[in-house]
Write a structure and sequence with these properties.
five-stranded parallel β-sheet, 23 strands, 43% helix, extended
């Protein structure tokens, strides 16, 4: 009886567990369906926006064509008028016409007639016939982000001495959300943070906003708490009539409006802010949703100045004199080897300096600067801030991701555990494609959980290049990385590497500068330290991270040795940009490598990890 009772209890517990499991599955299914419905809604909104954008571009092109036609017609009319004027002038100076004029005016005066006929007999230079001129092409305003936002100051003064430097070239793209248009009223600093996040319209005033914005009706209006310019008086204290008309114009067209408080007292802008659909602030005490400043990777990045860094440690006052405009501030950020910042320096200023790879402190220190750069990016970028803003106001934020599919070919079973551990410590990996011996599949899934694992058994007949092509066909993320199970990868390796896609225009990034360790000699080497943060002919194949579509377009050569060299050569042939990042986060490990011995600098006899891993 007790056995039956225990069996019944066990069956009941199992039934309850199954019911709970079924309920959990049902909940997860509902949640998944809700997310799917939301994704479909966002996709539909994006499709509608793209259609509107296409229609607007078609209308703009039609207007340009019509304007071009009118310019040609006007040029032709001007030419015909010049021809008519030339014919009239030619008739007036013709000898027969001058003789007729002389007879007409001197018919009653023989002396005047004689003089007139004598003058008419002299040769007169005839006017030159006009020529058709090419129709002047209307100068198109360069709408690319940063096109008109460039550094101009080429000198700095340090302790009375003038120092020349080449200004940092502000990039003109790419644009993170080209489907979205924002009308923005902001100071140069905030404008620089936002200009790469969408198609941005600026420069309109209370008098001409209706004409300017009608050219490309925006999806949203963002107004910063500006302190100067034509809008400052409109938003301070009692809202101005121009601001009210602008907001009414937006409301009539369903344009969302955002007020962003970044400076000054909230009370000074409270009345104007109440007129907007949404309000944000950088001030913790303001009581509105926060939208703090963050670094903009397009301009706050470690790309160096031409000529390298100035070999001095500067104070913040020496670095940033008050007369500098913000484009010139961006040049100064990446100029010295280090900057000493006083207590109370705004956090956003420290983050911008660190993001430019400049040491903050009494001396230059590349390792400390790299760690600070990483922290600055981890605090958030303006792209992520705009994601939050768009979500809060109900607009979709469709953009490319930095999700990574990793390809891990394991040719030697003895390297399996090490290789899996290197991948498992990486952030941002959504999928791992593993090629290895059959018995490795279960272990790969165990170590790499919860990431999606696609396992394929090694085919001895395949070259490394052919295997990589097969793996590439299985990858689904926007970025694809190739990792070597023999090498050492720091826990921030992929996060640091993928960051380069935020500020470079390369389709492939990797490391041309890196540390290596030779076990036989117990030596640590550093290859090409000068190749950090630069576009380069080639990078190490074991550090390759590429945009999936670009890599698919090139493909891998059917080779086992030298597949990466052939890939880099093909990139140079096809004009595909390759970018080398920092030297940290990776160690190439080999028993011996004579080529590397001849191509790298000896650091020390000992482990490479203390030098490479931060």
């Amino acid at each position: 009886m007790s056995t039956e009772l225990e069996s019944t209890r066990r069956a009941l517990r199992d039934a309850i567990a199954e019911a709970e499991h079924a309920a959990e599955l049902a909940r997860l299914l509902d949640a998944a369906q809700a997310r799917l419905a939301e994704a479909e809604r966002a996709t539909e909104e994006l499709r509608t926006m793209n259609e509107r954008l296409t229609e607007a571009e078609a209308e703009l092109e039609s207007e340009r064509t019509a304007a071009e036609k009118l310019r040609k017609e006007l040029a032709e009319q001007r030419y015909q008028a010049e021809v008519a004027q030339w014919k009239l002038s030619s008739i007036k100076v013709a000898r027969w016409n001058r003789i007729g004029d002389a007879i007409k005016t001197g018919k009653s005066n023989p002396v005047r007639l004689a003089k007139g006929l004598k003058g008419a007999a002299k040769p007169v230079k005839r006017p030159v016939a006009p020529k058709r001129k090419p129709v002047a092409v209307a100068a198109q305003k360069d709408e690319r982000p940063g096109a008109a936002f460039q550094a101009t100051s080429t000198t700095r003064t340090v302790e009375g001495k003038s120092v020349r430097l080449k200004p940092y070239r502000i990039p003109t793209g790419p644009n993170t959300r080209p489907h979205l248009t924002a009308a923005v009223i902001a100071d140069p600093h905030a404008e620089a943070l936002l200009r790469y996040e969408w198609r941005q319209t600026t420069g309109f005033t209370p008098r001409d906003f209706a004409r300017v914005l009608a050219g490309e009706v925006p999806h949203l209006l963002v107004v910063e708490s500006v302190t100067q310019g034509p809008w400052a008086a409109e938003i301070t204290g009692e809202p101005g009539e121009g601001l009210r008309e602008l907001l009414a114009w937006c409301a009539a067209r369903g344009i969302r409006t955002v007020f962003w408080h970044t400076q000054g007292s909230v009370a000074d802008y409270a009345a104007a802010a109440e007129l907007f659909d949404h309000r944000f602030t950088t001030d913790l005490a303001a009581g509105w949703p926060r939208l703090p400043f963050a670094i903009q990777p397009r301009v706050h990045n470690p790309l160096p100045l031409s000529g390298g860094r100035y070999g001095r440690v500067l104070t913040l006052d020496q670095l940033l004199p008050s007369h500098l405009g913000y484009p010139d501030v961006l040049t100064s950020y990446r100029w010295p080897i280090a900057v000493e910042c006083p207590p109370g320096t705004p956090q956003w200023r420290l983050a911008e300096l660190a993001a430019c790879g400049t040491s903050i402190g009494p001396e230059g220190d590349s390792r400390r600067a790299h760690a600070a750069l990483r922290r600055a990016y981890n605090m958030g970028t303006m792209t992520e801030r705009v994601d939050d803003l768009l979500e809060a106001i109900g607009l979709p934020s469709a953009r490319a991701t930095l999700d990574v599919s990793v390809i891990l070919p394991v040719f030697d079973p003895s390297t399996l555990e090490h290789g899996l551990a290197q991948v498992a410590r990486q952030a941002g990996v959504t999928q791992v494609v593993v090629f290895g011996p059959e018995e490795a599949e279960e272990r790969a899934r165990e170590v790499l959980e919860p990431r999606e694992v696609v396992f394929r058994e090694l085919d001895p007949a395949l070259s490394t290049g052919a295997l990589l092509n097969r793996a590439l066909d299985l990858c689904e993320a926007d970025l694809v990385a190739i990792m070597d199970p023999r090498d050492v990868y720091g826990s921030h390796y992929l996060a640091d590497l993928s960051r380069a896609f935020l500020f470079s225009t390369a389709d492939i990034v990797g490391k041309a500068s890196y540390y290596a360790h030779l076990r036989g000699a117990h030596a640590t080497l550093l290859k090409q330290p000068e190749a950090e943060y630069t576009y380069t002919p080639e990078v190490n194949g074991a550090t390759l991270l590429a945009r999936r579509n670009a890599l698919r377009a090139i493909g891998f050569a059917d080779l086992t040795e030298g597949w990466d060299e052939v890939l880099m050569r093909q990139c140079r042939t096809d004009g595909i940009k390759v970018f080398s990042t920092d030297r940290f986060g990776y160690v190439r490990v080999r028993d011996e490598d004579r080529w590397l011995l001849g191509a790298a600098h000896l650091v020390e006899y000992g482990s490479a990890e203390p030098h490479a891993l931060i």
